[in-house]
């Protein structure tokens, strides 16, 4: 049981059997995860939560009551900042500094991935002429 009142959430979605459904639950009993809305629907005989996963494409909208809208937005912004920091660590983007260049070069020594710089343009006249290895004169 929840001690603090976090408000309510109403999710409106399309059900294949019931048509348009409007379900109201406690705010902390609805979440969005992996392109699905997850809604706690109750508990089984052993006290375990039962949930329903609703594909995001079937959800019309979700209404929530919040204590302070600014606090809710701030929390969301913090989550986005955290996610982008995680992504930056996993997928370096932007200009390369000495440290990242050093990491790249050390990867070569350990048998890691190797980056090859490729220049685009025309071949020089010297490169186009067949040599002895190509059967030319």
Average per-residue pLDDT, rounded, comes to: 75
Strand order of the main beta sheet, please?
Answer: 2-1-6
How far is it from the N-terminal to the C-terminal residue, by CA? 89 Å
Q: Helical stretch count? A: 3
Order of helices and strands: EEEEEEHHH
Strand content: 25-35%
The low-pLDDT segments are none
* Tally of discrete structural domains: 2
Total number of beta strands: 6
Estimate the helix proportion, in percent.
25-40%
Question: How many strands, which pairing sense, and closed or not: the largest β-sheet?
Answer: 3 strands, antiparallel
- Rg (CA only): 28 Å
Structural shape? elongated
Based on secondary structure, the structural category is alpha+beta
Give an overview in words.
The structure is a single chain. With 137 residues, the protein is an alpha+beta fold. It has two domains: 1-65, no CATH class; 67-110. It is 28% helix and 30% strand. It is built from three helices and six strands. It has helices at 69-90, 98-109, 125-128; strands at 8-15, 19-26, 30-33, 36-43, 49-55, 59-64. The strands form two sheets. The chain has a three-stranded antiparallel sheet, with no helix packed on it. A three-stranded antiparallel sheet has the order 3-4-5, with no helix packed on it. Strand 1 and strand 2 (19-26) form a beta hairpin.
């Amino acid at each position: 049981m929840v001690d603090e009142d976090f408000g309510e959430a109403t999710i409106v979605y399309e059900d294949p059997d019931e048509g348009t459904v409007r379900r109201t639950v406690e705010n902390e009993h609805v979440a969005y995860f992996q392109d699905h809305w997850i809604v706690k629907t109750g508990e089984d005989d052993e006290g375990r939560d039962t949930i329903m996963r609703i594909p995001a494409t079937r959800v019309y909208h979700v209404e929530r009551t919040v204590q302070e809208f600014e606090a809710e937005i701030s929390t969301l912004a913090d989550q986005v900042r955290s996610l982008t920091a995680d992504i930056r660590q996993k997928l370096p983007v932007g200009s390369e500094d000495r440290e990242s260049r050093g990491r790249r070069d050390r990867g070569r020594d350990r048998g890691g991935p190797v980056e090859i710089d490729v220049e685009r343009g025309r071949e020089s006249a010297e490169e186009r002429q067949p040599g002895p290895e190509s059967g030319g004169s």
